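job 3f2a | input accepted
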Amino acid sequence: MTKYEWETELKKNIHRLPSDEINRVLEYYDELFADKIERGYGETEIISQFGNPADVADKIISEYDGETEERKRETVPVYSPSKAREEETRAEKPAEIAAPDSVADKAEAEKEEKPQKEKKTVRKTSGSRLALFVVLNVLTGFALFIAIGSLWIAAGAVIVAGFACIGGGVLEAIFSVISVFRGFAGAGFAQCGVCLAAVGIGVIIVSVSGNILKFMFAVTKKLFTVIRNWIRPAEAVHE
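job 3f2a | predicted structure (239 res):
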């Protein structure tokens, strides 16, 4: 049985109560359910702790019928979370939750709950690690950064060469067409074929280089992230 099915069955069995009382009952159980979810209970386990919705409805109606008209306006016929928590500390087994005498019981129980301090992860620069990183780079002549820079320069040169092939091939193709119209048909067509081949090679180079650049960007970003996280280790602090 799901939470929705349990609440639907409970609402059906307490339908003769005033609408405001029904809303209070459903609202309370909804809050209690959310509270137990935050404490690590599963939906099935919580429903088992609540008990059969028909039995719960009988207890609520019996409590409501036994009160005076004055008491009806002051009392919320639901169960007390404080008593439920007392039973849960005795044994982690499904337990029946007793009904409170008034809304004040629920308010007192909520006041007794102490909010847990939330932890927040922050990063602080480690002076010793930063100094060690600088010393290692000085001793190695900044070999790491030089190697990364060299790879980027090489990749950039390949891309430039690819665009140069495309541009040169297009320009030479134009001149080849001009040569055909000037009467040098054989040489012009041959030259045009070579130009088109150069354009094709240039397109292939640019395409492959683009993928290489994406890979290098990802690797470089990952490398600098690892270095940054090592120099600035994460620490958990209370807010």
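job 3f2a | The first helix runs from residue 3 to 13.
job 3f2a | closed
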